[in-house]
Automatic annotation (TrEMBL):
<dbReference type="InterPro" id="IPR050483">
    <property type="entry name" value="CoA-transferase_III_domain"/>
</dbReference>
<keyword id="KW-0808">Transferase</keyword>
<protein>
    <submittedName>
        <fullName>CaiB/BaiF CoA-transferase family protein</fullName>
    </submittedName>
</protein>
<dbReference type="InterPro" id="IPR003673">
    <property type="entry name" value="CoA-Trfase_fam_III"/>
</dbReference>
<dbReference type="Pfam" id="PF02515">
    <property type="entry name" value="CoA_transf_3"/>
</dbReference>
<dbReference type="InterPro" id="IPR044855">
    <property type="entry name" value="CoA-Trfase_III_dom3_sf"/>
</dbReference>
<dbReference type="InterPro" id="IPR023606">
    <property type="entry name" value="CoA-Trfase_III_dom_1_sf"/>
</dbReference>
Length: 424
């Protein structure tokens, strides 16, 4: 199946105008794009979460990201509920600021379009199964030979050696990395996280790797191949837990909401609901117990150091719980915050977004313009001079196909003219 365009625009009879506009404003990396990555072209052959999250971050920073989808589209387009006006919010979460072109790589014409896109690209990101791109001549070795300046990032679930045949689902990684073994109540079952966290961590790692490779290319003039896998990102993301094992043989166990090295650090019941208390040092502990009216505990040798508190959790916890029972979680939140004791109530997602807004963090960004704009969660970095852009809503499948093809055709014509000029 060949690349498609927006059928609504075609029905109005202004397809050519739409293509020209999109070529000038959206597709052309040499246009008046803004952001730290303005002018960088990213060929995005990823789907689901890790890859699309990475490429959305790059797009937010001004890169021209062209999302290549097969005839069925990104899997997450069908992942509902929830949805907004029939569009999966899972898909919407990681695909703003991109152009969508639909290509069937088994079709020779579409494969040629994909090749021309890589001719134009600075970065190629894909999460095909290991070996899946060889049949199209787009495997790492072929890409390196044909496009030596291209930064090529490959994302897999478990690498390209012993784990090459294993599907890259985040839940499998949560289980196999050890994450679930340390998540949940001590006497309960291992527990998954409430989000596909290692897809997200891998997406972040991929973005960091791409930025590093682009910086190195500025010096060497050469691209390189980056290999990332969810399991390696998970082991890195487990930080102190995995390092505790490799450095000293410690195998952590589930502690529920407790921390293996800090106490008190977790939720404690107040009069109406739980309050999270995070004591990271002895000074904070002193302020906590003084505000709770437990002044004597600051001098009790069982509790004066973090190590001592960890050894005497069972004696300390009931004393804190009894004191907290005298007021509500919100009342303690206000009182303890005023004393410099890190704490918080436990909020629902809607409350969390509203709380961030109350702090002036402006968590919601409208992607696109006018009636087509959709609310999304803003880019996590605030730049003082080159702020993130939210110029385009998550695209419909193949909506920018004609615009992309016009852009590639113009590049061919320009290149042909340059070649003829140099020969004259």
């Amino acid at each position: 199946m060949t690349a498609t365009t927006d059928t609504t625009a075609a029905a109005r009879g202004d397809e050519a105008d739409l293509a020209t506009k999109n070529t000038r404003v959206d597709v052309d990396a040499d246009a008046a794009a803004e952001g730290p990555l303005a002018g960088v072209v990213v060929a995005d052959f990823t789907r689901v979460l890790a890859g699309p999250y990475c490429t959305m971050l790059l797009a937010d920073m001004g890169a021209t990201v062209i999302k290549v989808e097969g005839p069925g589209g990104d899997d997450t387009r069908q992942w509902v509920p929830p949805h907004r006006d029939g569009v999966s919010t899972y898909y919407m979460a990681v695909n703003r600021n991109k152009q969508s072109v639909m290509l069937d790589l088994k079709n020779p014409d579409d494969l040629q379009t994909a090749v021309e896109l890589l001719d134009a690209a600075d970065v190629f990101v894909e999460n095909f199964k290991p070996g899946g791109l060889e049949q199209f001549g787009l495997d790492a070795d072929s890409v390196a030979r044909r496009w030596p300046r291209l930064v090529h990032a490959s994302i897999t679930g478990f690498g390209t050696a012993g784990g090459r045949s294993m599907p890259g689902y985040d839940l499998l990684v949560q289980g196999l990395s050890g994450f679930m073994s340390v998540t949940g109540e001590p006497d309960g079952h291992p527990q998954r996280a409430g989000v596909a966290m290692f897809d997200v961590v891998t997406g972040l790692h991929t973005a960091v790797g791409i930025l590093g490779a682009l910086r190195e290319r500025d010096i060497s003039g050469r691209g390189q191949h980056l290999e990332l896998d969810l399991l390696s990102s998970a082991l890195s993301g487990l930080v102190n837990q995995t390092t505790g094992y490799v450095a000293c043989g410690n195998v952590p166990q589930r502690l529920g909401n407790d921390h293996p090295s800090l106490y008190p650090y977790g939720p404690f019941p107040a009069a109406d609901r739980d309050l999270i208390i995070c004591v990271g040092n002895d000074r904070q502990f002193t302020r906590l117990v003084q505000r709770l009216g437990l002044h004597e505990l600051a001098e009790d040798p069982r509790f004066t150091t973090m190590e001592a508190r960890n050894h005497h959790r069972d004696q300390l916890r009931p004393l804190i719980v009894e004191a907290l029972s005298r007021a509500t979680a919100d009342e303690w939140f206000e009182a303890l915050q005023a004393e410099g004791v890190p704490c918080s109530p436990i909020l629902a997602i809607d409350e969390g977004v509203e709380f961030a807004d109350s702090l002036g963090l402006n968590p919601v960004a409208q992607a696109g313009e006018g009636a087509q704009a959709v609310p999304t969660i803003r880019h996590p970095v605030q730049y003082s001079r080159t702020p993130a852009q939210y110029t385009k809503q998550p695209p419909k499948l193949g909506a920018d196909g004609e615009a992309v093809k016009h852009w590639l055709a113009r590049r061919r014509d320009d290149h042909r003219g340059e070649t003829q000029g140099s020969g004259a």
